[in-house]
Design goal:
Elements: E1 3-4, E2 6-9, H1 25-38, E3 42-44, H2 52-64, E4 72-78, H3 81-91, E5 96-104, H4 107-113, H5 118-135, E6 139-144, H6 151-164, E7 168-173, H7 180-197, E8 202-207, H8 214-223, E9 228-231, H9 245-254, H10 256-259, E10 261-262, H11 270-281, H12 302-310, H13 338-347, H14 355-372, H15 377-395, H16 398-401, E11 406-414, E12 421-428, E13 431-438, H17 442-454, E14 459-468, E15 475-484, E16 487-495, H18 498-522
Parallel strand pairs: 1-10, 2-3, 2-9, 3-4, 4-5, 5-6, 6-7, 7-8, 8-9
Antiparallel strand pairs: 11-12, 12-13, 14-15, 15-16
Helix pairs in contact: 1-2, 1-11, 2-3, 3-5, 5-6, 6-7, 7-8, 8-9, 11-15, 14-15, 17-18
The chain binds acetyl coenzyme *A (ACO) and 3-methyl-2-oxobutanoic acid (KIV).
Length: 523
């Protein structure tokens, strides 16, 4: 039997550090449910001391996903008592909770970031691990920036943390500086010493992709004794991202003779998980991305197509069915019924809706199907994303402030090469407002007209539009970033009409600013 490699998924923590990828509570719960289906061993659900919202999300994941289940739930803390307490309070509801502590080990972190001596930083880590051990039996210590650290100091840190009670040692290549051969031999040396010190401690790696080597470094570490890998779905994460879960898992599965190791991942759930994360976070998967990119199993040239028809393995090293890719996609239309729609949602891993929730979602589906004729997988993610957005609005402060929000009643945009102009009609409570403006383009005119109505000094910093799914009626998804009063706000919206999608995104940004103003006033 080959060696089992533990999979620690940090999509909801390191993955969520991608600017603009923030998820609401319901989306996080949905992703966590899907990670459980994928059978990851550990979910890192967030950084609870960073905000009340993140604390709450970690706690709900621990309660809803981690209870009555072997899956471990963890969250990240600095070597700071308050952070460790926040992790403990949020993850303790899980059946298998874990406290994860991180602290730098490289000279630049020790000297420049902390302004301390190596011994002082090491003592801080020991104190943190000892404190965490008074709260929970399972504690992971991450030696941040290990690949740039002085090796003997790194080892003395690991030794001290194991003696203080850490049950998992994670060796991060925090800035993606490592190279597979070098990283592999570092892990080999650590593993060799660790086995003599305490062979019950799990050795783990966490690799970033700054030089495009995160997966290669992770695999090199596995070859050299690492028992556990940290990764994210679609390789998302800080800067250039992390090792992609699907790449590491499929490399182990496809080349058992090289690695002699396996994971417990249900690989047929990989595509569903990838699409869910990409859809909810609004982060497209690069078309040529290994395993989950749109072209990963597309064959375009004649010689390849001929070969494939004769024998698939001429040009395919992975069976697409192994990652949950069907050869066929069912196309839904306004004539589709509840059974077909429910089946398609379940196929995408979303079968948790109550009957009442499903009726709301089905109504949304019919509205979309009427405007768009054919509804594809990508559209279904947008429907669920909008559903959760509405639900979170109703459940949080939004509900009590809803009469303060602007709603779009009508818009008219005249696209004229000299003077593009826009007229808008917005409603707030019982009041109707109209605004008109000219601009350098239709979106500029539209946003100027809306700014005139809401009377907030908003600066548009970024505007992105992309088409979701296929066909000429594809949904346009608009994502904007605006600045107001020195703060940045991100808002998204989708519609088959791109001008409407643009207007809805701007309204969402305006309403986020309004809710923040109202919350600040009342606290
Ligand atoms: C490699 C990684 O991915 S680590 C995870 C990164 N994730 C995050 O940063 C989560 C989001 N962060 C946050 O919400 C905030 O930064 C918080 C809540 C963690 C801290 O906020 P603030 O208290 O305002 O501090 P701020 O972020 O400005 O500075 C970080 C402080 O923590 C210290 N610090 C950084 N890392 C650590 C650590 N591992 N252990 C102890 N202290 C640390 C820094 O030295 C600095 O302290 P200083 O003020 O004495 O110089
Ligand atoms: C918290 C640690 C593992 C991390 O994210 C890093 O070092 O990149």
């Amino acid at each position: 039997m080959s060696r089992k490699i533990w999979v620690f998924d940090t999509t909801l923590r390191d993955g969520e550090q991608v600017p603009g990828a923030k998820l609401n509570l319901y989306e996080k719960l949905e992703v966590a449910k899907q990670l459980k289906k994928l059978q990851v061993d550990i979910i890192e659900a967030g950084f609870p001391s960073s905000s009340a919202g993140d604390f709450n999300a970690v706690q709900e994941i621990a309660k809803q996903i981690g209870q009555n289940s072997n899956i471990m739930i963890t969250a990240l803390a600095r070597a700071v008592k308050g952070d460790i307490d926040a992790v403990y309070e949020s993850v303790r509801h899980a059946q298998n909770p874990l406290i994860h502590i991180v602290l730098g080990t490289s000279n630049v972190h020790v000297e420049k970031k902390f302004g301390k001596s190596k011994q002082q930083v090491l003592d801080l880590g020991v104190e943190a691990v000892r404190y965490a051990k008074t709260l929970l039996p399972e504690v992971q210590y991450s030696t941040e920036d290990a690949s740039r650290a002085d090796f003997e100091y790194l080892w003395s840190t690991i030794e001290a943390m194991v003696k203080a009670g850490a049950t998992m040692i994670n060796v991060p290549d925090t800035v993606g500086f490592a190279e597979p051969e070098q990283f592999g031999s570092m892990i080999y040396k650590i593993n060799d010493r660790l086995k003599n010190l305490n062979d019950q401690v799990l050795l783990s790696v966490h690799c970033h992709n700054d030089l495009g080597m995160a997966t290669a470094n992770t695999l090199a570490a596995i070859k050299n004794g690492a028992d556990k890998v940290e990764c994210t779905v679609n390789g998302i994460g800080e800067r250039a991202g992390n090792a992609a879960l699907e790449e590491v898992v499929m490399a182990l599965k496809t080349r058992p003779e090289v690695y002699g190791a396996h994971t417990d991942i249900v690989t047929t759930e990989i595509m569903n998980t990838s699409r869910m994360v990409s859809g909810f976070m609004g982060l497209d998967v690069q078309v040529n991305k290994a395993i989950t990119g749109e072209n990963a199993f597309a064959h375009s040239s004649g010689i390849h197509q001929d070969g494939l028809i004769k024998a698939r393995e001429t040009y395919e090293i992975i069976n697409p069915a192994d990652i949950g890719l069907d050869d066929m996609e069912l196309v839904l239309t306004a004539r589709s019924g509840r059974h077909a729609v429910k089946t398609m949602f379940a196929k995408l891993g979303m079968n948790q809706f109550t009957d009442e929730e499903f009726e709301v979602i089905f109504a949304e589906f019919l509205t979309l199907a009427d405007t768009k004729k054919e509804v594809y997988d990508h559209d279904l993610y947008v429907i669920v994303e909008n559903f959760y957005k509405q639900r979170s609005k109703h459940n949080e402060q939004f509900n009590s402030y809803s009469d303060q929000f602007f709603k779009l009643i009508d818009l008219q945009v005249i696209i004229n090469s000299e003077f593009p102009s826009a007229n808008v009609k917005l409603q707030r409570g019982e009041d109707i407002f109209t605004g008109s403006a000219v601009g350098s383009g239709p979106i500029d005119a539209l946003y100027s007209a809306m700014t005139e109505v809401c009377k907030l000094d908003i600066q548009l910093k970024q505007y992105d539009i992309r088409s979701v799914s296929r066909g000429k009626e594809a949904l346009g998804k608009v994502k904007i970033q605006v600045e107001y009063n020195g703060n940045m706000y991100i808002a998204k919206a989708s519609d088959t009409d791109i001008l409407k999608a643009s207007a809805y995104a701007y309204i969402n940004a305006i309403n986020s600013i309004i809710v923040e103003q109202l919350v600040t006033k009342t606290t």
